[in-house]
Amino acid sequence: MKKITLVIAMFAMAMASSAQYTGHKFFDNWSIGAEGGVSTNLHDWDVPNGAVAGINFTKGITPVLSLEFQLQAGFNDDANWNWAFKSANVVDNASIYANTKINLMNWFGGYKGAPRFFEIQARGGVGYTRFFWPSYEGITTDSSNDLNRCNVKLGLDFDFNLGEKKAWTISLRPAVILKTSRDNDIVRGNPGLGMPVVCDNGACLAYGHNAIGQVTAAVTYHFKTSNGQHYFTEVKPVEVTKVVEKTVEKPVEKVVEKVVEKVVTKNVGNGVTVEFALNKATLTNTAKAKLNTIDKSATVVLDGYASPEGAKGYNQKLSQRRCDAVKAYLEDRGVKVAGTNAHGAEGPESQRIVYVTIK
Q1: Cα separations in angstroms, 265 against 99, 203, 262, 349
Q2: What is the pLDDT of residues 120-179, one digit of tens each?
Q3: What confidence tens digit (pLDDT) does each residue in 225-237 have?
């Protein structure tokens, strides 16, 4: 139970990292690879030996976790599994594996937004092997146990990610393959095969190996993803900030007005001060009365402000609208407006005012 809990926790940690990166749609982060190498039994590792070749299809789930589908063929390596036989066929067996891969560098060291030049991945999975049984003169086999076999495969990938785009990877992939049950090959006929067998009334048992080792070299191509790269990319914090700013700058459609009993103003000397209601740019009767005191032959300059309740961009536009309202009213009376300055909200004491300065 503890082992199952640990595996679930590891899987959850690997899956959690996908929330921080882009390029994790279903058709993203697929790759295809070709590999070739040698195999040998682990009891007598130096002899016999054979060759293996295969292709791999991999789907990246997160920068830590990926799934691999592997097809392999064995060449002249039946003797790695069996004491008694060596196949007369060039291709002795075919295997298919479903593996889970954990990128140890990204898991323990964190993902940096792009693959490292050198990475180590742990690989493990289950597979099925079909043997093409050999035929020898004067020898027959009564057992079919060894024709089909389920295996467990464990290994490491030593990856070298090449180029700026990281589209290609060269790997060294050692692995151990364990068969899931111990079976015997029953041989009838001449037992003089030069291998350890136990005979009883003409029937001989030739014991097979339980494990073989593989070392292969692989070349992998990573297809381009929807983010324009060949790998996961980080979600930059600035993108989130922009969304927040747009939300804040959006003006509120309905603002509840409140009465401000005291408005803080400054002394403009030769001029008047025009006050506005909250979130308004409309002249009140009191404001018009003040503007009527200005001589029609005068030349004035306008400075508009807003209170600090709203967003910066919105306050800037509101103070400009207030200046425009005062300017239109004065020019309609014949007063010359030499310039308008929209200041928005300048500090927490800023108010809803347009200062009219007579030059």
Answers
A1: 74, 113, 9, 9
A2: 999 999 999 887 765 444 444 444 445 677 889 999 999 999 988 899 999 999 999 988
A3: 887 888 887 655 4
- Tens digit of each residue's pLDDT (9 = 90 or more) over 239-262: 444 444 444 444 545 544 444 434
Spell out the residues 6+ positions from residue 294 whose beta carbon is closer than 8 angstroms to its own.
Answer: 272, 300, 330, 333, 335, 356, 358
Per-state percent for the chain, helix, strand, coil, to nearest 5 = 20, 40, 40
**CATH class for domain 271-358?**
alpha beta
From the list 29, 24, 26, the residue with the least C-alpha distance to 230 is 29
Reference 123, options 72, 157, 151; nearest CA is 157
User: Which residue type sits at 272?
Assistant: V
Which burial class, exposed, middle or buried, applies to 145 when counting CB atoms under 10 A from its CB (0-12, 13-18, 19+)? Answer: middle
Collapsing DSSP to helix, strand or coil, 216 comes out as strand
The fold for domain 2-237 equals Porin (2.40.160)
